[in-house]
């Protein structure tokens, strides 16, 4: 594993970073092993320094928040209580701590909490004033559990909620997406915006049918918001431990991202907790540090990648630190590290996903497909069964069950010494095996001699005897460049789409598997070949094309941007992650949908963006030079993606009912070939 050096071509993104030792100045006075402690921000920041990331970021000074800002989401009572902290004695601090669930107070916690909140707002202001493209606030205390009139779960003030409120009031934003992948449910955020469609709250959290803290009935999948906000609160409760990248990515591909394309957010706030990461004793989930980079890459498809990332939980210092560093690295625009072992999502997760789709379907078109029957009837019956089966013995936390005094220590579920050592070893192995090598140069460019284009954006390289596609592929395999762009006249025999990848796999040890993504109606040269997965998206039917484990033909009449992107999310990406290629080649040529402008640079750039997360960014975009694909279009589609920049959608992208049905039919058809489609079972009856 090599540390990163600043690369000229990778400096293009302005990533804001906020960190200040002021937030180290408080800790639990009566428990030396309390999980929430100063190392939680100190070590992640040091890890970013180790990788050389800090000097590549725009380092933004934090600041204290004002009373006015605190009062946007909290009562004067809480504000005043916090102001009293510096003058409290040890006994008084202890007494106040017994009044709140999973809390400790300290003379300096008020200052740190105000600083964490002020810094979060500072990050938002820098984003909105276009001083940065995205940003990460390495802050403590966390915020997402803090309620209107009640500190809760290590949180005093609700950083994410106040940032969202500020975005609404100061910047007149109407569509803010908050994504909360901290392993605990951010009930404080949910309560703040439960009836407000201006904030779409999406939380993935451990639930254990209600047995996991904060033990709220309100954290389950059927709490979807109320009044105008109905459908704008999305909970994915995880009822089993051990879920990892496969389940988290499936939540994104099937629920969050399709809904984000329909919602079209103006700002994305991430309540970024790493207690969902591998080795954390609180969450006991298995998301890998690299997994977070992929989630951030996907979210960069919206709002020009304007991501406001706020640290929440994370109690395994090693996986927390690595997770933060790889997240900051992804924000800077570096290619995502590889994620291995992408597998079929666990059955308990599948049930949750289907439950959620059934309750959200009435509010989001993207979730409505074939076999829609009366949702209200099914749901009522289904919830009844669910109550009988899972909820009857559970003691949910309510105002009535609230204890006189809360425990001060020992309520957190630590690992044994032996378990700690095992996890530590696993994380070390994971870090060791994660390849963070980055080539000196980013994008290489090649075209056939007879094409009359000049490209000032990228480095043109020498042509090989075989073909321009081969020479660019070879540059990537040799790790001289990360990605490439090629323009050719024709895909004739010399440029066979199977032959070139085959030669690369034979010649280079590093390339064992190649994925070809073909956007074309002419696929005559595609033949079955070992270690090569062909994915063809076309608009004309051909009876000879039968999908199998090495060839996937997706034919859509009247293909448009929305259908193309949705087909990618729901069909192609699960397969691509499961296949885990070493190199991705895309070929865009005779493609009716592109010629008649139903598919545009918009849809194309989004699918390229998702593909750029695979194979450590080793992506070659090949275009056939024809009148139908103007050079201007090629540049629009390619440059932001190849440079690692964020994208946006100018209007919601929702496939129409026919296309949604077609996607569903394709999934049903492919289920027998690819087991990653397990989650597309019949909805509950
Ligand atoms: Zn948490």
Automatic annotation (TrEMBL):
Alphabetical list of Pfam families matching this protein: Hist_deacetyl
Domain of life: Eukaryota
Segments forming domain Histone deacetylase: 35-330
InterPro entries registered for this protein in UniProt: HDACs, His_deacetylse_dom, His_deacetylse_dom_sf, Ureohydrolase_dom_sf
GO cellular component: histone deacetylase complex
Single biological process term from Gene Ontology: epigenetic regulation of gene expression
Gene Ontology molecular function: histone deacetylase activity
Gene3D superfamilies: Histone deacetylase domain
Protein name: Histone deacetylase 6
Organism whose genome encodes this protein: Brachionus koreanus
